[in-house]
Amino acid sequence: MNITFTDRAMQQLEQILSNTKKRLKLKYDTDGCGCAVSGVPTLWLVDQAEEDDIAIETNYVPVLLEKSRLVFYDDNMVIDAVEGAGCFLLKSPNQILNPRMSIVKGSEQHE
Question: What mean pLDDT is predicted for residues 75-83?
Answer without folding.
Answer: 96
